[in-house]
Amino acid sequence: MTTRSEPSILHLDLDAFFAAVEQRDKPSLRGRPVIVGGLGPRGVVSTASYEARVFGVRSAMPMSEARARCRHAAFLARRFDAYRKVSTVVMDQLRALSPLVEPLSLDEAFVDLAAGEHPDLSPGGVRAVGERLRTTIHARTRITASVGAASSKTLAKIASEQAKPDGLMVIEPGTELDVLHPLGVRALPGVGPATAARVARLGVRTVGDLARIAEGELVDLLGEAHGRSLFRLAHGLDGRAVSSDRASKSISVEDTFDRDITDRALLAGLTRRLAEKVADRLVRSGHSARTITLKVRLHDFTTLSRSATLPGPTDDARSISRLAVQLLDEVDTAGGIRLLGVGVSGLSDWVQDDLFSAAEGSEQPPTDDADDADEGDEGDEGDDAGDLDAAVHSAGRWVPGMDVVHARLGPGWVWGSGLGRVTVRFETADTPPGPVRTFAADDPELSGVSHLQEAD
DNA sequence: TCTGGGGTCCTAGGACCC
DNA sequence: TCTGGGGTCCTAGGACCC
């Protein structure tokens, strides 16, 4: 648990990432408030540009509130394909610094510089590495990044947070507590609203306050694991290694509906569809799973889960689907459901086992399916996902922010749509702000180019 | 028109086993 | 014939993170 003597752990965080990519690709939005997130009636903010943050708009805020706070902002749907492309370039730059890179999300990662080839890991040497990295990333992506470096993960992350936006901070070994102790407890990773409220009852507001509390008292208040880890963090102790190969432990898909749903047949159909998506991702990841979990959020936002564990792992869509619908039967849905989710856990590396599929294959070719007695009466509804979508979501063909191309006018993006019309601004990352034109929504010369809804 | 979607880790209680 | 003590697995829920 020795804390290292050099600030060789680096943390990189792209600034207001989704909004920054939108401003890069939509020149007319540069310098203006941009809010990216779910545009439906129950959407929330994913990322607000710094111009929008001035109005108090924050991540995870309901879109309705964001609109009230900042009426003149541009409200855009997410374009994950674009974000993934930037992320790939950035992560490649990090891997050029060291083989030990731990991505935390599309826009954030730790790098252990000590595992790379860096002769000078003094604060000055690390500062040079960080500045060069920021410069390269901006040159390759036109996105700004903030970088923190310190002797531990926690401090490196705090440093990049302090450096934001578009900055660099290296915490010199020996000065960790000087940086840490004046900060509010919420600066520590793992301290959210609930933990902050608990320690506030002990009069604790800053990390320095926290460091004066005995370990036993924190354990009593917060539990064994959380209490001890917070105690250590408050004293600047964090020996966690940067880990580049963390196996995933669960896969899940969930959907919040535009309006609450009570219709049980519809809910069963949606559950099956979610289960199929999960199974598809499971298969594509080369895993199988033993535990299936159904998640249900009721009209009043109460969230329940029901799970079942199989004797052995599966990646079969029909098994997962059947189980998920069975779990749904245990839930009282009469009051209305706002969200359904299906997840799998207990993952094993198990690429479609030959023994099993050989044994089962002989007794279930697609035609003699009679053993699944209850599937016969759904053949007519299970085929049309579009109907399910229409029953549950109102999004049209043209979603604000999406990339389009016009046969004569070239590439642009959807500015807004409605009443049978769609308005497009014709500009790209490499043009000056461009002109706006309005078309009929079914104009044959206009077509979409990106897959907006393909989530991360 | 309050409150997304994808995850991780932890806890507590019961079953079960030695 | 008045109550052990671990350990593991499973389920449900909660806190937290981006």
Automatic annotation (TrEMBL):
Q: Which sites are catalytic?
A: 108
Q: Where is Mg(2+) annotated to bind?
A: 13, 107
Query: Cofactor(s) for this protein?
Result: Mg(2+)
Where in or outside the cell it occurs: the entry states:
Cytoplasm
Which catalysed reactions does the entry list for this protein? Answer: DNA(n) + a 2'-deoxyribonucleoside 5'-triphosphate = DNA(n+1) + diphosphate
What's the record's note on cofactor binding?
Binds 2 magnesium ions per subunit.
Q: Name one Pfam family in it.
A: IMS
- Cited SUPFAM superfamilies: DNA/RNA polymerases (SSF56672), Lesion bypass DNA polymerase (Y-family), little finger domain (SSF100879)
Q: Which GO terms describe its biological process?
A: DNA repair; DNA-templated DNA replication; error-prone translesion synthesis; SOS response
Q: Where is this region: Disordered?
A: 358-388, 430-456
Q: Does the keyword Metal-binding apply?
A: yes
Q: According to its UniProt entry, what is the function of this protein?
A: Poorly processive, error-prone DNA polymerase involved in untargeted mutagenesis. Copies undamaged DNA at stalled replication forks, which arise in vivo from mismatched or misaligned primer ends. These misaligned primers can be extended by PolIV. Exhibits no 3'-5' exonuclease (proofreading) activity. May be involved in translesional synthesis, in conjunction with the beta clamp from PolIII.
For this entry, the protein name equals DNA polymerase IV
- Write down the species: Phytoactinopolyspora halotolerans
Q: Lineage from the top down? A: Bacteria, Bacillati, Actinomycetota, Actinomycetes, Jiangellales
Which gene name belongs to this protein? dinB
